[in-house]
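Example record used in the benchmark description.
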Amino acid sequence: MKVTIIGTGNMGKGLAQELVKAGHQLNIGSREPEKAIALAEQLGRGTRGGSIAESVTHADLVILAVPYGALANTIQDAGNLQDKTLIDISNPISADYKELVIGHSTSAAEEIQKLAPNALVVKAFNTIFAPLLSTEGRNGKTLQTFIASDDANAKATVSELVKSIGFEAIDSGALANSRYLEPVGEMNIHFGFFLGHGPVVAPAWVKV
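Model output (structure tokens):
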């Protein structure tokens, strides 16, 4: 797949490494293009880096690997997102990581859909810590990521992407269900950072 990752932080880097290993055609975008170019050079295998707008033009699927507070500016910088599939991996959390700043009547994913009404927004990866993105970090376990979207084709495409890097894709229904997935992401943050488990835990929906 032709994929663009916007963001060069831990999540962006972790996803980029796995996507390149899986053989996807990758672009890295950043508000600081030099960081994107440096990461692309580090990854190799034809990866390209540049500005956000430039990187978006080269892909059908765009991963928004930036904090919730940076999403509005990122989408504005991206330019034309007509028919692009946007993967939102964010959790709308406070600066101290201890609570959600929006919820109940909306979600980060739904707010992105409002900002980019012509795009196909998909929620995914918001319950996965960066150290667990690598195959080595998962210690042979297959972790789940929950996928929510109003578009069936976009959801199927993202599910294939998720599977290609070794995760189990769990169909989580409509995009509005992000209102429930984001609290799960926040609870996982509490397990990881405030309840002593470290960033090596992830939730699973178990059928018995």
